[in-house]
Design brief:
The chain has helices at 3-29, 36-57, 68-92, 98-105, 108-120, 126-143, 154-182, 184-206, 216-244, 246-252, 256-268, 274-291. With 294 residues, it is an all-alpha fold. It has a domain at 14-124 and 152-244. Helix 5 crosses helix 7 (154-182).
């Protein structure tokens, strides 16, 4: 078992758990009078200065690699990754529970493998297929009790979260190709700055300009989400993709729904069923398959 691969998987798991906390924080914030676009803006406003500092300190080592085409890729991935994917996710969470959001969102590993196969000509290995089957079986078992077609606006929420999955999968697949060229830290900083600017422009076009009049708890949650569910995991994810590849990261990320079960249970009071624990074990076995070499 490669040491660097194990480290990459650990970084991926940590990043996924922190990212998964975002859905819980969003649902906590929605207990106060704040809309999705304003909450997304707060997240990005708190995160933007941190990305700017890292971008200034950590400049590209190989300036020749920063071609016009690379910059266009960064802009494109910044738009689809943490702007569109986050926007669809925040809007979808208005209609559905945090735990149900996870099972829909985590169809993206399959989409990543498909994109990598079609556009980047990467073969899907037998070990990856086994891991996919195990992790998806675990997810289905873990969330079988959540799949009750009731609740107002359910289909709207499901559709928005699925769009988030597609756009995030595009970001992961594209970053897996670009990160080796310019480095994980540089790519993450630049792409996230683009995402932050897109959110700001979006708010200027459609926002209610009430950003200074929310309860203190909303700003605290926005700051926590920016630091622990945006900045830190974004760098962890990029480093893990560099070490294990986009396809393997997508499979490891299937642990995200399981972490959301635990977080939603603790912070939102959502119940845990024994099938969810069975699903957790299957997902962990799938993650173990990814850590081993073919």
């Amino acid at each position: 078992m490669s040491k660097s691969r194990v480290i990459g998987v650990i970084l991926a798991l940590l990043g996924v758990v922190l990212f998964s906390a975002k859905a819980v924080i969003v649902k906590m914030a929605y207990q106060y009078p704040v809309d999705a676009v304003s909450l997304l803006l707060l997240r990005m406003l708190f995160a933007l200065p941190m990305y700017l500092v890292v971008a200034v300190v950590k400049r590209p080592k190989d300036q020749a690699a920063m071609t016009k085409g690379v910059y266009l890729w960064i802009i494109g991935l910044g738009i689809v990754g943490y702007y569109l994917a986050s926007l669809f996710d925040f809007l979808g969470l208005v209609y559905i529970k945090a735990s149900l959001e996870r099972i829909i969102l985590f169809v993206y590993p399959t989409i990543v493998l498909f994109i990598s196969r079609v556009f980047f000509k990467k073969q899907i290995t037998r070990r990856q297929l086994i891991a996919i089957v195990l992790t998806y079986l675990g997810i289905v078992l873990a969330f079988v009790l959540e799949l009750r077609l009731d609740g107002e606006g359910l289909m709207m929420g499901v559709g928005l979260i699925f769009l988030s999955a597609v756009t995030y999968a595009s970001y992961i697949a594209g970053s897996g190709w670009l990160i080796p060229k310019i480095g994980a830290t540089v790519f993450t900083s630049y792409a996230m700055i683009i995402s932050c600017l897109c959110v700001i422009i979006h708010y200027l076009l459609v926002g209610d300009f009430n950003i200074t009049n929310y309860p203190t708890e909303v700003y605290v949650l926005g700051f926590v989400m920016a630091v622990f569910s945006t900045v830190i995991p974004s760098y962890l994810v990029s480093l893990s993709i560099k070490m294990i590849g986009a396809s393997s990261f997508a499979i490891v990320a299937s642990f995200g729904p399981i972490s959301t079960i635990l977080l939603a249970n603790y912070f939102l009071g959502e119940s845990i069923h024994y099938l969810q624990w069975v699903g957790t074990i299957l997902v962990m076995i799938g993650v173990f398959f990814v850590t081993k070499k073919d």
